[in-house]
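Weekly modeling sync, notes
Attendees: AB, CL, MP (scribe)

Item 1: holo prediction request
CL wants a bound-state model with zinc ion before deciding which constructs to order. AB pointed out that an apo prediction alone won't tell us much about the pocket. Agreed to run with the ligand included and paste results into these notes for async review.

Input as submitted:
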Amino acid sequence: MNIARDKLTGEEIEAEELKLLISVEKANYECIDVNCRIRLIPCSFEKHHKPRPYFKTEQGVTHTLECTFSQYTELQNQSRIIDVSVNGLFPVPYPSKLVKPSRKTIKTNKEENDHLNPRIIKNVRGVIDNLQSEERKRNRVVTALGQIVDFYLNFPNNRDNSLEILNIHSEYRFLFKRIKGKSEGQYKGRKIYFGRVSLSDDNVIERENRLFIQLYEFDKWIKNDERNEPKNNYTISIDLIQLSNHKKTKILNELVFATIEQKNDEDEETKKKAYIFFLGDPPKEDTPYLFTVYENYVVCRYDEILRTGRRVRS
Ligand SMILES: [Zn+2]
């Protein structure tokens, strides 16, 4: 599992953030579902640990029957192949809303989850109330972009699910856009853009309070006499003035995790690649190959991007 609740603060914490903590209190983490709350053990977070950090359950302990978060993670095992929706509805809460982290958010989260308690749902009477509980079922407010990206990767047949990102309302399929080919008119509005990232150090440059990451996405190949090379690589720009060192490290760590995952993959036929996902704005006319990242909403994943399911496309 890549997310847990910090018992002390009541806030959700992404496993990746464990690396940035001065010390990790091992007994301080629990399942994010308020009806479950079993202890989760932080793993692979020490400096010398190379793989991406994660949370695991204690030996012999399983999530409670009511735990919708574990139901959600179990669904992922089949969702890359089949459409897991039932009568057009997603069966368990999924990340449907990205908000900025704040104490107020956590409170809202808890309130919404309380409505998911099956005992409460059973007591709901009338058609309208039932509809409302169905609506509730679909809703999980998250503060981490990684949760949204993982849904996109794991549920290609359910990308018509609604999604709200910092007050932009749409569906998963419309709020993600692959960066590829010519720039002209392709990219519109703030959304989650993604592309392959080349994992060498010289693709990351810090200059004038901005961090520039060059992608392995470009306009086209051009043929020179000597060798072929890509023309007009895309680059993303991150404003460091608004960013704490902590947040900058988090972004750089993402690149490191993706590098390690790629290196450790021994499957020669894999279709997985290292991708960078970011919430950001499209290139401007005078800089057609430069994207601007919004705050620090950046994650990397070493994965295969599956085509959006047929039902969703039609
Ligand atoms: Zn649980």
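Recorded for review: The pocket of zinc ion is lined by residues 31, 33, 36, 38, 63, 67, 69-70 (CB under 6 Å).
Action items: CL to compare against the apo run; MP to circulate these notes.
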